[in-house]
Amino acid sequence: MNPAWLFNEGKNVQSYRLLGALPANEQKDGSGFRFACWAPRAEAVSVVGDFNGWDPLAHPLQPMDSTGIWHMIVPEAREWQRYKFSIRTRTGQQLLKADPFARHAETRPNTASVLYNPNNDYTWHDDAFCASRKDATEAGPLNIYEVHLGSWRRYPDGNVYNYRDIAQQLADYCVNMGFNAVELMPIMEYPLDASWGYQSTGYFAPTSRYGTPADFKAFVDIMHQANIRVILDWVPAHFPKDDFALARFDGLPLFEHPDAALAEHAHWGTLVFNYGLKEVVSFLMSSAWYWIDEFHVDGLRYDAVSSMLYLNFGRSNARPNKKGGYEDLDAIAFLRQLNQRLRKAFPYCILAAEESSAYSRVTYPVEKGGLGFTHKWNMGWMNDTLRYMKSDYYARSQFHEKVTFSMMYAFSERFILPFSHDEVVHGKKSLLGRMPGDEWRRFASLRACYMYQISHPGAKLNFMGNEYAPYIEWRYYEELEWFMLQYDKHNAMHSFCRDLNHLYLDSPAFWEVDDSWEGFQWMDANDRENSVFSYVRMNADKSEIILVVLNMTPASYPSFKVRVPKEGQYRLILNSDLPRYGGSGYAGLDEDGVVFHTIDRTPSEKKKRPGMYERLVSAVKQNGVAGTPKNRLNDDRQSIIDFPAIDMPIPPLSGIYLLYEGDVGNKR
After folding, report:
1. Of 215, 250, 354, 355, catalytic
2. Contact 47, 83 (CB under 8 A)
3. Would you call the peptide bond into 109 cis, given omega within 30 degrees of 0 as the criterion?
4. Residue 352 near residue 301, CB atoms below 8 Å
């Protein structure tokens, strides 16, 4: 089928093979390039570059029928030469524009595109990894390490690493630390370092800050050989106004929305794509396809999806759509079309939405009325959790529902629980800096927070540095403060996060059933007074059951009765209060060999109020936390004989995981 016609119809997902600059005859030496530029309202288009002295008269492009595409072959063009398109508008203005489909670009502050031959530029070694990839919606552990490549590590002189040079370091680090995926903040070419890549100008070009496209392929390959998935942040929501790039590309709004009221996100100073224009749809779909197909990436995280879904996002004067609502119908249609096509072609690919509104069915298939994403960032969980964790310990009872409320909707979408870069910038403080109290309490509280994140239903994401608890916010212009690991408290936090991550990866109870109540049960969601939460996580066949006990205040308890799902033995497998993690070592608890047995009950006690546990589980499944009967097992005035329970010490500001080991006889 004619690729130009498909492009005009919004159906070409590989338009990077039609447009841009490509070797004219698939020659390995990069001699001669074919140029093609979409500029439908231009009076004339030519290509200028190092091969013609930047003369706009030297190589005029010819129109390709009525497609709006201009094209020609330049035999003199060679790989690595710089170029731009010279566009004469209908008003006689002469514009110099970087190629929207360029595969390589100059490093900022320079803005020219760079000729690149992608044919046989890299030999892959990830066949085994690619063959083993499962559907993105299948059960499995997903522990994501979010990385900004330019500030994760740098050379001693402050220069950034090449994609190849940093890849092995990052792969080894992720394997050691128990992360099985990396998510890179945008590496699509961008002009302003301070935008962190979220204002893209090169939707088909890995930023030259870190090397060539082949270098980036090597990065992905090295990660794959270490069994680490690679997810890319991708920005289909908006683009910057820089005059060398997409803005008013042929002298008039083209990639951006033609309606001035909808064309801009004023609070970001960026322009909004025109999702109703078919060629723009082809452009964006091709960009997504390109990174998955040509660079073997395992996922895309779509930035700022909420801004795409609603016409009134950040706008006070928005007009309703033709149906009377404020949904952006064109953007929604684009997302559904793209996600449906990607899911069919690349079922292993994670398609994650950064979406913070109440829009429903984000992760439902398109054919079931959804948007077709595989995952959604749980921004509500993140905001509630951090609001709870920054509250003073004496006041945490007032914020109790910030912890329990998430289970009211935990299974409504397929969620990722993010502690991302956005939470450690712009005066929000580092995660450690948000914890209240003295230094010991802050570290202890953060460890308990991480144990809550890991044991809560949903995939996990942490921004680089969170694992050693820096004092300061992230700074994009320098490497992380790795020297902090020479200090005991930070090194202990680093060790704790490593152990916690590996326990998560190795424990199906934490991830095999992340989408229903079959994998989660509250044991006690109502202990507001003590701020102690307990619940269990279970794998599919209930052969692995892990009891989670979280104490969110500095109070300690030498004897605390905790409800458990079954009678028998519970072995301590992780305690955040261990001295080697910086904890107090309260009550001598050690995860090696410490076991607790359910409290003996007489036959008559076991029969008392039969069916209460079944009614509890039924109420929680139907009504969430609001349907949970009052259950305060730590209060001696309440009867503990309704449920099995263990009696255990609970350290201050701690998280404890206990593995159920079967009914081996009850003891105190």
Report:
1. 354
2. yes
3. yes
4. yes
569-575 sheet: strands from edge to edge: 520-524, 532-538, 545-551, 654-660, 569-575, 595-597
On the question of pLDDT at 620 being above 60, the answer is: no
Look at the domain 386-414+435-457+512-668 and name its fold: Immunoglobulin-like (2.60.40)
- Spatial separation of the C-alpha atoms in residues 588 and 585, rounded to whole Å: 6
Angle at the Cα of 607 (from 604 to 611), degrees rounded to 5?
A: 165
Q: For residue 495, give the nearest of 572, 430, 581, 575 by alpha carbon.
A: 581
Q: Report the CATH fold assignment for 142-385+415-434+458-510.
A: TIM Barrel (3.20.20)
Q: Which residues contact 506 (CB under 8 A, 6 or more apart)?
A: none
Q: Pick the catalytic residue from 279, 303, 479, 577.
A: 303
Kindly compute the dihedral angle of the four CA atoms of residues 423, 426, 428, 433, in this order, to the nearest 10 degrees: 90
Active site residue 193: no
Of 240, 249, 244, the closest CA to residue 270 belongs to: 240
Dist CA 257 CA 572 (whole Å): 58
Beta strand extents in 266-328 (DSSP E only): 270-272, 299-302
354 is catalytic: yes
Distance CA 507, CA 294 (A): 34
Give the pLDDT mean for 83-88: 98
Look up residue 510 and give its amino acid. Answer: F
CA 21 to each of CA 4, 106, 349: distance values in angstroms, whole numbers, following the listed order: 15, 15, 28
The model's pTM: 0.93
Q: Which residues contact 483 (CB under 8 A, 6 or more apart)?
A: none
**Segments of the chain assigned to CATH 2.60.40.10:** 3-114
Q: What is the pLDDT of residue 627?
A: 35
- State the pLDDT confidence band at 161, using cuts at 50, 70 and 90: very high
Q: Dihedral of the CA atoms 60, 64, 66, 69 (nearest 10)?
A: -70
Judging by DSSP bridges, how do beta strands 645-650 and 557-563 pair with one another?
antiparallel
CATH 3.20.20.80 in the chain, residues? 142-385+415-434+458-510
Instruction: Give the C-alpha separation, 119 to 661, whole Å.
Output: 56
Q: Output the pLDDT for position 623.
A: 44
Asked if residue 491 lies in contact with residue 516, where contact means CB atoms within 8 angstroms, the answer is no
State whether the Cα torsion 561-564-567-568 is positive or negative. Answer: negative
DSSP 454-466: HHSSSEEEEETTG
Residue 639: what are its φ and ψ, rounded to 5°?
-80, 130
The answer to whether residue 81 scores a pLDDT higher than 80 is: yes
User: Half-sphere exposure of residue 228, counting CA atoms within 13 Å on the CB side?
Assistant: 27
Residue spans in the chain of domains classed CATH 2.60.40.1180: 386-414+435-457+512-668
**What would the two tokens of residue 73 be?**
């072959």
> Which residue intervals of 456-529 are DSSP H helices?
488-506
Kindly report the average pLDDT of the chain as a whole number.
Answer: 92
Which is nearest to 75 in space by CA: 25, 113, 38? Answer: 25
Unique residue bearing structure tokens 């079954």:
566
Helix (H) or strand (E) holding 71: strand 69-78
- Per residue in 266-301, pLDDT (tens digit) is 889 999 999 999 999 999 999 999 999 999 999 999
What is the average pLDDT across 467-479? 97
Cα–Cα distance for residue pair 328/325, rounded to 1 Å: 9
Distance CA 323, CA 309 (A): 14
Q: Quick one: fold of 3-114?
A: Immunoglobulin-like (2.60.40)
Q: Tell which residue, 648, 404, 666, 658, has the closest CA to residue 536.
A: 658
